[in-house]
């Protein structure tokens, strides 16, 4: 509906914003100055004790210094009453004594027609309700009682019954003077394609009235009593009143309940919504026989910023969740998202409530997962990640998904969270790592596993052989401190940081934090908020960090690059050759003698020398079997020593 020029200005002029807001808040009279139209109160949009919500009555605007809510009288009514723009204008116009403007004749004619159809629908709803009390509906009443709906609940939801008669409703409505054309236009009857008399669409079914947000009857849903019926549930066809992709079952009552702070729960069907509401979760809605549409998502977000999608815990439910993710990714934004409550396998909300009670359902809703977790599960469950190609394919799928998010800040947070989950996947507690993610496994971080990962078995064996833990940790300190000091180089070393196997849990926590917070403008501040100030103070107080120019001189990109690359290369070299040596030791299977012990010590010395880079000549690199760099003379000595170790195990030929 378009409003004539000047109508809204006149409405705002006639209204006192202080009076409109004053019905919802208690003014802080010590802080307010009524004579100047200056009012203060605790904010009605978030929980607080202090008065940070300010109303400037003369200018007609409000602003909260806590949650930053702002607007005028129309936006205040929209937010507090959970109504759309025109409804808010109608409410305020009534208070101001202003008549809403007349529509143009054509629009008025269309509105009159819709009003007549609504009246036909109301007549049908009342007739179906009466039929539920007849002898013919005894089976339907028994079914509803078995689903936990007594007479009072049936009345609350205006449930009815359509007799198994081809024209019972049509005869009843015609008897009240309603023409056949209006009955068909309302979607209550249909005409055969071959011609002839119309017939009732709903026969032998329990009837669920479908009302719009304003409470007007616009359609019906019917549940068949015959188990052999072609369709278990049947909805009205699309009509002048009803667009199934633009409406939600129970929207009006759910909007009111959500306005009082209840979570908005989105279920799959009528009985689920009724069961949820009867169990105390009154802000429950359902799509109407279709997958969730973009229009329905937008309607949900106008009711609640983070609806909870409660889907059946079976394969079909998970497929539905994944379709919703694809639909929602381009639409989500700051403060506008989704959560998913996955039901126990084989149960829907109605089943769970009847089996375990309302508390069990509330617990499932309270534990609803953010959409990023479902996205991660979709891209990882049932997949093998035992090769670089498969891991790269995962990277591509995740990039393609996050690329759909239009808001840059939110996209950055999604990318950071997915990198965190990927770090967890490829840096597990066991040394060899998972190659397949089983279905049903839930991924996420708790405080317990944020205390990070111990060194792998191969790393521990290497330390037992050559004792390089302290030197490795020092290199880790310098790498991490340099990245924190000059985070601009992080994109170049992100993959290496993900692979870096930190020996110290504190270093692992820092590495993980850097990866998770890489998008933050103030990386150091974000890390302090995540890990505490002490973690960074401990890192930068290390003597070897304090004397490193790359760690202490922030912003020198070239110096930072060279330092990190050098430390990573030395770390890779020492650990790579340590793994070779550890494998040789494992091959000994407990056999040893004095000569073998001496050869092991020589190999360890060569390894230690390679790690320190003594006398390093970067033009003389060879590469070990693990790809780590080592000078040619060191490589030769190392290979010879490994050969004598193997010979020491096997013994001379003929023995």
UniProtKB/TrEMBL annotation:
InterPro entries: DNA_primase_core_N_sf, DNA_primase_DnaB-bd, DNA_primase_DnaG, DNA_primase_Znf_CHC2, DnaG_bac, DNAG_N, DnaG_primase, TOPRIM_DnaG_bac. Keywords: DNA replication, DNA-binding, DNA-directed RNA polymerase, Magnesium, Metal-binding, Nucleotidyltransferase, Primosome, Transcription, Transferase, Zinc, Zinc-finger. Gene3D superfamilies: 3.40.1360.10, DNA primase, catalytic core, N-terminal domain, Zinc finger, CHC2-type domain. One of its GO terms (biological process) is DNA replication, synthesis of primer. It catalyses: ssDNA + n NTP = ssDNA/pppN(pN)n-1 hybrid + (n-1) diphosphate. The keyword Isomerase does not apply. One of its GO terms (cellular component) is DNA-directed RNA polymerase complex. Residues 609-633 are annotated as: Disordered. Its EC number is 2.7.7.101. Its cofactor is Zn(2+). SMART domains: TOPRIM, ZnF_CHCC. GO terms for molecular function: DNA binding; DNA-directed RNA polymerase activity; zinc ion binding. CDD domains: TOPRIM_DnaG_primases (cd03364). It is an enzyme of class 2 (transferase). Binds 1 zinc ion per monomer. Pfam families: DnaB_bind (PF10410), DNAG_N (PF08275), Toprim_2 (PF13155), Zn_ribbon_DnaG (PF01807). Contains an N-terminal zinc-binding domain, a central core domain that contains the primase activity, and a C-terminal DnaB-binding domain. PANTHER family: DNA PRIMASE. RNA polymerase that catalyzes the synthesis of short RNA molecules used as primers for DNA polymerase during DNA replication. NCBIfam families: dnaG. Belongs to the DnaG primase family. Monomer. Interacts with DnaB. This is DNA primase.
């Amino acid at each position: 509906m378009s409003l004539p020029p000047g109508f809204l200005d006149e409405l705002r002029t006639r209204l006192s914003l202080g009076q409109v807001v004053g019905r919802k808040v208690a003014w802080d009279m010590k802080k307010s100055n009524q004579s100047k139209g200056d009012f203060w109160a605790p904010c009605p949009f978030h929980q607080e004790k202090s008065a940070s919500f300010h109303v400037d009555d003369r200018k007609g605007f409000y602003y909260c210094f806590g949650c930053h809510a702002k607007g005028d009288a129309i936006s205040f009514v929209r937010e507090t009453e959970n109504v759309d723009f025109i409804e808010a204008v109608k409410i305020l116009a009534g208070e101001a004594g202003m008549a809403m403007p007349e529509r143009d004749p054509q629009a008025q004619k269309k509105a009159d027609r819709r009003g007549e159809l609504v009246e036909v629908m109301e007549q049908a709803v009342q007739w179906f309700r009466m039929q539920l009390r007849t002898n013919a509906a005894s089976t339907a009443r028994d079914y509803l009682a078995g689903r936990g709906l007594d007479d009072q609940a049936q009345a609350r939801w205006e449930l009815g019954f359509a007799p198994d008669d081809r024209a019972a409703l049509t005869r009843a409505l015609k008897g009240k003077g309603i023409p056949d054309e209006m009955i068909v236009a309302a979607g209550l009857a249909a005409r055969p394609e071959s011609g002839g008399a119309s017939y009732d669409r709903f026969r032998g079914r329990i009837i669920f009235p479908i009302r719009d947000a304003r409470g007007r009857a616009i359609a019906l849903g019917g549940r068949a009593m015959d188990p052999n019926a072609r369709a278990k549930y049947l909805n009205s066809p699309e009509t002048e009143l009803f667009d199934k992709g633009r409406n939600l079952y129970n929207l009006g009552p759910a909007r009111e309940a959500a306005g009082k702070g209840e979570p908005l729960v989105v279920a799959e069907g009528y009985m689920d919504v009724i069961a949820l509401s009867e169990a105390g979760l009154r802000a429950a809605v359902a799509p109407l026989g279709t997958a969730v549409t973009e229009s329905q998502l937008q309607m949900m977000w106008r009711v609640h910023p983070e609806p909870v999608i409660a889907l059946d815990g079976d394969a079909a439910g998970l497929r539905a969740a994944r379709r919703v993710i694809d639909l929602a990714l381009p639409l989500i934004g700051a403060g506008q998202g989704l959560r998913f409550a996955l039901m126990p396998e084989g149960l829907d909300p109605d089943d769970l409530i009847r089996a375990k009670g309302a508390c069990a359902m509330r617990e499932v809703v309270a534990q609803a997962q953010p959409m990023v977790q479902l996205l991660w599960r979709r891209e990882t469950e049932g997949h093998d990640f035992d090769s670089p190609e498969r891991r790269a394919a995962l990277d591509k799928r995740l990039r393609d998904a996050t690329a759909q998010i239009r808001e840059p800040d939110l996209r950055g947070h999604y990318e950071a969270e997915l990198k965190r989950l990927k770090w967890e996947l490829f840096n597990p507690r066991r040394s060899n790592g998972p190659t397949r993610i089983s279905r049903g496994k839930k991924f996420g971080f708790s405080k317990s596993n944020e205390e990070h990962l111990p060194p792998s078995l191969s790393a521990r064996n290497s330390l037992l052989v050559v004792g390089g833990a302290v030197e490795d940790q020092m290199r880790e300190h310098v790498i991490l401190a340099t990245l924190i000091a000059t985070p601009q180089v992080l994109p170049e070393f992100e993959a290496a940081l993900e692979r870096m196997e930190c020996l110290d849990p504190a270093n692992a926590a820092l590495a993980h934090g850097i990866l998770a917070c890489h998008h933050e403008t103030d990386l150091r501040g974000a890390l302090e908020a995540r890990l505490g100030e002490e973690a960074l103070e401990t890192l930068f107080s290390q003597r070897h960090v304090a004397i490193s120019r790359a760690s202490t001189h922030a912003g020198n990109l070239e110096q930072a690059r060279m330092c990190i690359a050098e430390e990573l290369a030395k770390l890779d070299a020492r650990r790579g050759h340590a793994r070779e040596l550890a494998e040789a030791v494992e091959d000994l299977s407990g056999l040893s003698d004095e000569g073998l012990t001496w050869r092991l010590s020589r190999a360890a010395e060569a390894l230690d020398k390679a790690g320190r880079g003594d006398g390093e000549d970067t033009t003389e690199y060879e590469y070990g079997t693990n790809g780590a760099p080592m000078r040619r003379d060191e490589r030769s000595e190392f290979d010879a020593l490994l050969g004598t170790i193997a010979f020491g195990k096997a013994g001379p030929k003929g023995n």
